[in-house]
């Protein structure tokens, strides 16, 4: 059950998933769907999502991958509880486990190298940059209030096994910072894809795959354009978002 005065129940085209979200507070965006499409998980691998919010990435990964187990780590109590309700709502308790905790304390929650794959749609902006969301829940999700970029990459290095993969979606203007933070924690960027609203627009997001203890060398993949010239979704965006039955 849900309270329609304080929550929404959204139906996703991907996997026919249902997702409860706060009417006011942190709500997922298209970023989560782009990241879920970008990451690669082999059958029987274990995956962890850092900063799960209402659980959208674990839900999408359950629908799109053959991961044996998916763990969602979320700091904020209300969102962690909501994520657990979403797991139960979609009858995915056999594959998804939600853990409430701080990624800065992962050594107290998990074993080192416990996961094959990690993903995260982390806070993009430094404190003092950009317009901060007025709600604490939104502010923590979008600004580095509870964790900084270095905290994220340190946690990723601890959690991912040697040779394991880590996938992120981030701001292009902070790409150099992300790459420095990754390599300083033995996570070598191996693939990058820029996301543009349309062909003439600068990149608004960047997708990064890193591998722990890998040799240097990164593939720059073809850009992803979300809209075509008529301001409707591109064919690839339709595929990712499952628009028009794609």
Automatic annotation (TrEMBL):
Gene Ontology biological process terms, A to Z: methylation
Keywords linked to the UniProt accession: Methyltransferase, Transferase
InterPro entries tied to this protein: SAM-dependent_MTases_sf (IPR029063), Small_mtfrase_dom (IPR007848), tRNA_Adenine-N(6)_MTase (IPR050210)
Transferase as UniProt keyword: yes
UniProt keyword Methyltransferase, yes or no: yes
Gene3D superfamilies reported for this sequence: Vaccinia Virus protein VP39
Molecular function GO terms recorded: methyltransferase activity
Cross-referenced CDD domains: AdoMet_MTases
Chain ranges of the Methyltransferase small domain: 33-127
Record's protein name: SAM-dependent methyltransferase
């Amino acid at each position: 059950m849900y309270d329609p005065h304080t929550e929404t129940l959204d139906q996703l085209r991907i996997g026919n998933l249902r997702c409860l979200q706060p009417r006011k507070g942190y709500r997922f965006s298209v970023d989560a769907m782009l990241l879920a499409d970008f990451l690669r998980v082999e059958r029987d691998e274990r995956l962890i999502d850092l900063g799960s919010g209402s659980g959208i990435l674990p839900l999408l990964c359950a629908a799109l991958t053959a991961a044996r187990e998916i763990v969602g780590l979320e700091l904020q109590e209300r969102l962690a509880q909501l994520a657990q309700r979403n797991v139960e709502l979609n009858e995915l308790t056999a594959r998804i486990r939600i853990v409430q905790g701080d990624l800065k304390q992962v050594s107290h929650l998990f074993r080192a190298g416990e996961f094959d794959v990690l993903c995260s749609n982390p806070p993009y902006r430094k404190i003092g940059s950009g317009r901060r969301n007025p709600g604490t829940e939104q502010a923590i999700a979008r600004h580095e209030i509870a964790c900084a970029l270095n905290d994220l990459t340190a946690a990723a290095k601890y959690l991912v096994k040697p040779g394991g993969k880590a996938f992120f979606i981030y701001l292009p203007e902070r790409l150099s910072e992300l790459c420095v933070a990754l390599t300083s924690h033995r996570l070598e960027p191996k693939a990058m894809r820029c996301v543009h609203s349309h062909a003439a627009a600068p990149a608004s997001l960047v997708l990064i795959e890193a591998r722990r203890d890998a040799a240097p060398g990164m593939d720059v993949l073809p850009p992803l354009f979300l809209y075509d010239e008529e301001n409707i979704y591109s064919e690839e965006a339709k595929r990712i978002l499952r628009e028009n039955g794609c």
